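lol so apparently i was supposed to do this last week
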Amino acid sequence: MKTAIKRIIPFIIAAAAACMFFSVFFVYLLAIAYPPYTLYQHEQYLASDNLDGRFVGTAGIFEAEEYIAGQFARAGIDPLPGDDDFYQEFTLQRFGFDRGKTSCSITGKPGSFTISLGENYRPLPFSDEGAAAGPLVFAGYGITSKDDNWDDYNGIDIKGKIAVVFRGEPKTVFSGTRPSRHSFFQTKAKNAHSHGAAGLIIITTPFNNDRGEDFRLDERYFLPGAVVSPRKPVPNRSFPSIQISTNLADKFFSSMGTTIDKCIRELDNKTPASEFILKDFSADIQVSMLEQPENMTARNVAGFLPGNDPELKNEWIVVGAHHDHLGSYDGTGDTIFNGADDNASGTAGVIELARYFAPRQNELKRSMVFVTFSAEEVWLHGSAAFLEKELPAGVKIAAMCNLDMIGRNPDGPLEIIRRTPLPHFTKIVNEAQAKTGQFIYYYSLDSDYFSDDMSFVKKKIPTLFFFSGTHEDYHTVDDESDRILYNVFYKRIEYIKEIIRLLARENLFD
Ligand SMILES: [Zn+2]
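anyway here it is w/ zinc ion bound
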């Protein structure tokens, strides 16, 4: 008897192992086919650190575009009629500071410092072009306000010198709920200039920025042919204003036998700025703007699913989301703007909708365009470039759905913003709501919140903009995937599916 049991043990083990293998395999198959899981995967991939914040013109956004095109191909949708692939290239022109002709050097104890553009200094967006050289003088917060009985320049000779000031304002004096105008960089620049300074250096402190310092240049992008008014230089004036890193500024304060924190506390307790004497430091600053714009290439990714009604197929429904975000910068700690909600969420949504509708083409009378836009964050250029392309003869865009930030605020409604009220759209929104039982908030907004739907509004195309509201991580490095609530996010996609199904079938206009 015992030997018989011994003989069957290996078979039992083998059978158990086989069972386990097949059940794990089955769960795996279920998981990859299950829509919430695929939505999760797309969002996680697009918001991963590997893609480096998906800034226009970078390797990271290139990878994102390859991924989206790959997903469109797998879903089984086609490129747009007349296109060979899913990419829609367009040129952007970059205006702004000239990297090659903008420089700064600082000398002082102990010796001169390496200071490099984009890493520990940058010209402030409003800086004048031109040169400034001279000794550095510390001037507290750089604020003069008679009303508040505060003057950082009191007892300081700043003529022909470069003012070094802190960002912000003393909370002990300016105690409103919002920062006063005296804390604005431009107010500080004007004040330094009117006191006769030759230039301005602003320092961020741990009290007004705990997220690290982003020293990338302020840049402006345009589609070629756009009417661009070049910045006019201010006559007889060149007042460069730059921001330097806290690390670099530490050297100034240690030479004065203090620290940034200590100095701020003393200033806030009304020790005059003139008591902090910065000796033997000087700077040589040169700020230049680009004379000619630099060209760069960007790409939208667009796929097509033809409708099955002989007439209505010429009316396209565009479902779009921007895939670009703010990139990353050089520095320590977290320096990547992952843009998990803004807008890996909307992009993942567009992929998921393409996957869902590709095998359900028979439900669509109108044709569908699934598109992800580049260059939204640098002023909606991707959607504008998309609309510049000529449509095939007889085709018009009947409606556009924009998905931008739909993965956060799980207790709040899915907001649907209309820019122009249309009775048929209201009916559709309500019908989808009744069918899915979703918590929605449908309302009108003129221009307070900009996203790609605005490019369509300009062309008089009816739009619906899906959005789950802003939050404290908006446009910060903390907009990360672990803050997305995937079950709620997926429910919102289910609702948008209903909307699209209705838009692609129902009477929209008469
Ligand atoms: Zn966005």
